[in-house]
Every structure is written in structure tokens, then in C-alpha cells.
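During the reporting period, our protein records have gained a C-alpha cell line. A sample record is set out beneath this paragraph:
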Amino acid sequence: MTTRRTLIKLSAASAFGFPRLAAAQNPAVPPPPAAPKGQVIIGMSQEPTKFNPLFPAIEVDQGVWWQVFSPLWAPDPKGDMLPRLAREIPSVENGGISEDGLTWRIRLREGVKWHDGEPFTADDVKYTIDLINNPDFRAGSRTGHSSVKDIKVVSPTELTWRMERPYATYAAILAWTFIVPKHVLEKSSDPNTAPFNGAPIGTGPFRWGERVAGDHITLLANTSYFGDGPHLERLIIKYIPDLTVMYTQFRTGEIDHTSLQGITADHYAEASKLKDRVVSLNKTAFVENIQMNFGNKVFADPVVRQALYYAINKPAIIGAIYYGLPTPTESFLPRQSWAFNGDLPAQAYDPKKANDLLDAAGWARGADGIRAKDGVKLEFTNSTTAGNHTREQTQQLMQQDWRGIGVSMKINNMPAAVIWGDFYHYSHFDSVMVANDFMTASDPDVYERFASDQIPAKSGQGRNTIQYANPKVDALLKEGTKVFEQDKRKGLYQQAQKLIRDDLAVLPLHQISSAEGIKAGLIGYAPNVNTQINCWNCGDWYWAS
């Protein structure tokens, strides 16, 4: 059984330096250049728009954050934590965490500098946590951070704090918390509108170059970086909203890497045969799902959610649209998670059952064939990222199948920067088709995703954008943050998965396998199921010649 001691001990990783993943995987890999050389162009189908890493944002923004900023530590592909700004991972054994899990001591690297040359210190870590907890700041999430009290700066390279209560997930949360510069942001009267938010300054391997909105972002080598690298002179993140166009540009050599949604399933077989290209099918933590806004009266009726799920033709979606690449699932957690519940009931495509349920619940068809009950018509919109043709095909198939059970679903797709901004965060949607990584690094805590006090439209915090509320789920998820023993936590999260599946809080479609490509000769690319984007380590990348 995993104990509090062994759970808190996150990693036995070296306190200094980062392992070169490419060299570890293949000793014949040539060494990196002595100085930054060349560039890599990364194609992304969604445009990064949030450059303050503490703001509410979506996964694509992390493609910038991992390059410009640094967390205290970061998860590697195996789920182990690697020191970044911290010298070591705090544990009971090294004196970094007390036996009761309440007192933390963080020891930081010496000699780290911000991109503007100012020294990084413990004051920056304290400022970052304090800023997140400032109610006037538009923080993406205060989960975990709100339990931190009495932060004390012991020296420029050491600080301590007290946890208000034991919080099993906090180490994983810190692995995804990027530290911001106090000396820059404190000069602004309002950090929410600071110039920093459009031209960030960090400690990461790349520094800000330029942004041409709607086209690209250029990042430049930080030659004063505290870790190995960077080995590239420039990193260009190119916005290509149409996935077919992205694939074409990868095939013709205009981009070097297809990131975030990568190569669509219908192009995978062809892409795998391209000369001088390396294409991999990577397991991800992302689960493609339909999310319904519980603030909409249509979705408040559980019978409607059940009928909609029965009428989704999952075999056709996975087999015909996605060429069998994804894995069917009934959970919001990936199969790779230690808390995954593999005993949830499998969805059956059964339009007759869907019709029978709606008939029995009093949803009667009108003259136009669309059902209604108590003056509420069974109609709504579904939105997703414009230009994603596999999702568009899925929408069209669902639209047809749902029409067959008396449901009118209109399609209203938008550019990524629009749909995944306030429209999604503050629950302005009826329903969305979205891929979510519900975990935090390798931790299965989903409190801010499903707890009833984590609804941004009501409380201004959290990521429960579907406005779901179930007191039993609240209790399980709250307990899951207090318990350190992994076996006990596993039981709590498996119960929560069952309740959420029974409620159909989300309609899970499949766990995504991402087909991504790189040009042959690019070294350092390392898919990581514990991060939300596979260009998390671009500081390690370089060309073989």
C-alpha cells in the first residue's frame, strides 16, 4: 500500500540538470550544437492567445508557456517529477515536507535569471502564489493554492509555507504552475491588464520575440537559460486553423512539427509513408467528449442526457471518421491513470431505447418532428473548433442521429480563440465537443472540473464550465484531496467516475490517440501523456545536422 511518505516523495530525480531524453533513448544520437542553431516551425490548429500563464486558458497556450516560463518542477513522460526552478523535489526524506504534509520547504536553484537579466528569487515564487490567491486577479484556478498560508521567504533561494490542510494533489498542481516575475508585474496597477500579458518575461529556454495575431509567434533562444539548451535559435509557432492545410504544409515541408490535434486520422496512413518524416501515434490523456451546459433546461432532465447518449453511434465515429485510431471509453480519465475505472457500463448505440425513454418522460413530438415538454423544445446548439473536419463530420453524424429521436441540434462552430475563451469558460454555450485532459500532470484529482463550488459562471473560479452539481461527487472529490494513500484515493476516484458516468455529466466518446509528425533529423521530441502538449520540452530539441 502506498503511504503518505511514499506519495509525497515524488521522484528520486537528480537535483541538478535535466536528462537528455533523446540521448537516453538512443545512445547513437549526435550531441547538440555548442550554441543555438537553426529553427523549428511548429504548426498548431488553435492560436495561443493567453501569455500570462496564470490566466484562464486552454491547452494550446501551454505551447508558449513551457517555452517562456518554468515551474518549480515538471512531469516527464513516465510521470516522475524533474526539478526545474527548484533544486530538488521536496519530500519527507529530504526535509522538504513535514510528516503530516502541512509544512513545505522549497529550495531553489542559484543563478537563475529572468529574460530581462534580473535575478529569479524566492520572492517571485511567493508573489506568484499570492497573486493567484488575490481575489481581484483573474486566476485560471486557485485550487490547491488557496490552502497555502504563511509563506515566508527565508533567503533568495529558500522559502517555506504552511498548508491549511493536507492536499494530496498540490505537488502535481505546482508542476503545472509557471512562476511569474514579481519585479515586472508589481509595477502595474492592475496585473490583469499589465503589458506583461502581451509580451511576457520568463525564465524558460526561449524568450519572447514577436506575435503576429492570426499568423504566428516567434520565440528566441534564451542564451542565459539555467538548464541544458536551448539548442535552437528560434521557435516559430504557426497558427493553421484548418487541419487539412496543416497536414499539407507538413507534407510539403513548410512546417517541421504538427502539434495539438496533429495529423487527422484520414491522413495518418499516408503520413506514415512520407519520405523524411517521422509520424508517431501517441497515447494522450485527452478524452473527446460532449459537454452539456446544465444551466440549460433541456439538459437538466437526466432522461434527455440518457437518450442523447443512446443515440450516439460511437462505433461509426471511431471506426469510420477516426479510422479506428482512438480507444472507446466511458470515463473522463485515461486508461493510463492509476485511478481509471474499467468497470463502467459500455454505451450501446440504441436509437429505439432513446425514443422510448423520451416518449415515457413526456417529451412529445411536434408537427415538425421535434420534441417538446412543458413549453421547452428539445433543441440546442453544439459548438467546436472551426476547421476541424473530423469533429465536423462527427457533429453531422450526431445531428442526423439525434434528429431521428426528435432532437434538433444546430451546429455553431467558432475559431479556437473565441470558443475556448469566455464563451466556454463562463458557460455561454449550449453544448460543445471538446477534448479534455481532466488530470493534473499524473494526478487524477478533478475537483475543479466537477465540484459545485468550482463553476466560473457563479463563483469566478474553477473549471466546472458545465455547471454540474452532485453533492455525493463533491464529497468524494473533496475527500480525494485529503487522502494521501494511493489505494484509498483510487477507490474514491473510481466511485466518482461511476457517479459521473451514471449522471452522464459528460458524454465520453473516446480517448484520443494523437498522430503527430516531425521532420526526420529533429532530435528531442518526446510525447508526454503527463503534459497537455507534446512540445513541452522544445529547449531540448535540435537538428541532427
